[in-house]
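Course assignment 3, question 2. Fill in each field.
Student: A.L.
Task: Predict the tertiary structure for the chain below.
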Amino acid sequence: MSAIAFFDFDETLIVGNSGNLWIRRELKAGHITTWQFLRAAVWMARYKLGWASMDDAIRTAIGSLRGLSERELRARTRAFYAEEVRMLYRTGARPALERHRTRGDRVVLLTASSIYLSELVQEDLELDDVLCNRFEIDAEGLHTGEAVGALCFGAGKLPYAEAYARSRGVSLDDCYFYTDSYSDLPVLERIGHPAPAHRGRAAPLADRVVGRSSRAAHSCRCSRRLSDPRRQPAKHGPEAGLLGSRVDVTPQPRRCSGARRSRASFHSLHAEPTPRGRRPRRTDGGAGGDVPGAGAEQDPAAPR
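Answer field:
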């Protein structure tokens, strides 16, 4: 039976955080005020320091969409993706997707990003499905300021993954999850093949999550030691670097002209994720979150 490979988006498939890029763009275009920009920036900073949950910030952001046309937001998101996001995919992103397709696995985006951005990623990368944040739209095509169903973020991603796997008749023990973020720890603890995606923020996940033979011991140690996102290990785990640290500059169809490219140029790995309890041979010599926005399969309780 084929498995499911779930992929986070920000700092996993791409280099950078689309949420940060989005609020800067919205400020420059005059769609948000300086106060709204500063408030969002403070929330993100507090979240990175482990001082705040992003749930409230995401709900506040969704609430700010009240009265905005869905058509307008889709158009703005499409321009944003083409001009600032599409060129940020990591060197190992497409190869990792292709490896799973070759095995017959389904490849699914599991992200806190909006449905508008997620659908563009799905189209570009030819993903099977997206599990993300969706918004209520009234009869006039305007946002109500409310989310559809539960938020798809952090621990909230786990019910989405469970429901989707169940709808496909697949056990999460046979599935994969690529992510950079400690906030995704609940999913990593439950998934059969956790795959910390690259160096940097994924280092604690690579050191603490992969290779635990006992799920109970793994859960206890990881929950305690990753409770503080500021904690950084002395070395990176062997699975850090699965998707690479560089931007993929390989020409892709429909790439927008004149788009800026990141100059990040770190060492990248293209290793396979490994099941729990088995560490792979090192190949690197020991070196080494989202804007708010398919289908009934995401959340059985959520309307389409």
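Instructor remarks: Confidence is low (pLDDT under 50) at residues 211-241, 254-271, 278-304. Strands lie at 4-7, 106-114, 129-133, 135-137, 143-147, 176-179, 193-196.
Grade: pending
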